[in-house]
Every structure is written in C-alpha cells, then in structure tokens.
C-alpha cells in the first residue's frame, strides 16, 4: 500500500492490514531518522533531559505583580507627561524634560526586556540570551546619556515635541 493511499484510507482499513502497519512503521522510522540528524535553527540547547524540572528565580518583590504594576503605572504616566509637553510648548521646563526622558527610556527598556525574556530564554539560548540582555542594558545606558545631553545642551524633549507637532 502506498503512503498516499495510506493517508487517504480510513483508519480501520489501514491498521487492519499488515502491509499498512509496515508502511506506517517505515514512515515513522524514516521520520525519526531524518528529524534527529537535521539542524533546526535556534534549536533547543537543554541541560539535562526534558523530564528535569525547570529552575525558577528566587522570589522577589521587584518581579511578578509589583513588576507588572510598575510597568502599567509607568505606561499610564507617559500620557499626562506627553500632554503636559504639548501644553507647555515654547517654554523651557527642565524637570518635565528629565522626567519625560527617563520615563520614555525606562518604558522602552522594560518592553524590550520582556521580549528578551519571552523569546531568548537562557535555558534554550545559553550564549545569545545573556549577550542580548547586556546589549540592551548597554544601549539603554547610551540612550540615557544621549537624552541627558539633548536635554541639557540642546532644545530638550518638550521643545522637540512642540516643534514636531507644529511642523
């Protein structure tokens, strides 16, 4: 019995015949032989077996519900700060520039960090996961320095928002 007719045949007729069982068994053997030797990009790198329990981080008040509440509070606070930047257009408010700059960078950092936690887990990506975490931390520090320089030596974020809005 051919594989194409095996797949189209009803299960009772397929498993009733000895040749059907032999074809099915040969398909399983061929699948397992080829699937174990092929390289899967981004494939799993596990330590131990799949039956070993995963490790969990130690409990901390900065993670979990407190962490989620902080992210929501930060995201909600960006709305009135951006509105205040529109209202105060044309004026120089260094405190608002500083708060808006830090809040925007922290909001972006937390979002990218969540992406890294979800998609580059250290158990699967033992080298790339930590490397990308440190790359994100370095980029965040560089952006904070750039925002500070922009707020102190240039026009500042509130003036930039006003100019972009009226352009």
Taken from the alpha-carbon principal axes, the silhouette is elongated
Number of strands: 0
Q: Mean of the pLDDT scores?
A: 75
Beginning-to-end CA distance, first to last residue: 72 Å
Largest sheet: none
Q: SSE order, as H and E?
A: HHHHHHH
Strand content: under 5%
Low-confidence stretches: 3-18, 26-37
Description:
By secondary structure, the chain is mostly helical. Helices cover 69% and strands 0% of the residues. The protein has helices at 3-8, 11-16, 18-37, 65-87, 94-119, 128-153, 157-165. Helix 4 packs antiparallel against helix 5 and helix 5 (94-119) runs antiparallel to helix 6. The longest helix has 26 residues, at 94-119. The radius of gyration is 28 Å and the shape is elongated. The protein starts with a helix and ends with a helix. Residues 3-18 and 26-37 have low confidence and may be disordered.
How would you briefly describe this protein structure?
This protein is mainly α and 167 residues long.
Key phrases:
single chain; 167 residues; mainly alpha; elongated; disordered N terminus
SSE map:
Layout lengths: L2 H6 L2 H6 L1 H20 L27 H23 L6 H26 L8 H26 L3 H9 L2
């Amino acid at each position: 019995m051919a594989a194409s007719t095996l797949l189209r045949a009803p299960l009772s007729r397929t498993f009733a015949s000895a040749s059907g069982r032999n074809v099915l068994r040969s398909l399983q053997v061929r699948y397992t032989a080829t699937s174990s030797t092929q390289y899967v990009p981004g494939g799993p790198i596990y330590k131990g077996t799949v039956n070993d329990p995963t490790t969990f981080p130690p409990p901390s008040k900065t993670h979990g519900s407190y962490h989620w509440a902080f992210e929501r509070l930060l995201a909600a606070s960006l709305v009135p700060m951006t509105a205040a930047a529109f209202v105060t257009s044309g004026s120089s408010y260094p405190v608002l520039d500083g708060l808006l700059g830090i809040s925007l960078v922290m909001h972006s950092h937390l979002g990218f960090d969540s992406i890294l936690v979800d998609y580059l887990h250290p158990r699967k990506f033992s080298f790339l996961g930590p490397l990308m975490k440190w790359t994100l931390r370095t980029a965040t520090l560089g952006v904070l320095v750039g925002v500070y320089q922009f707020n102190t030596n240039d026009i500042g974020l509130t003036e930039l928002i006003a100019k972009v809005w009226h352009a």
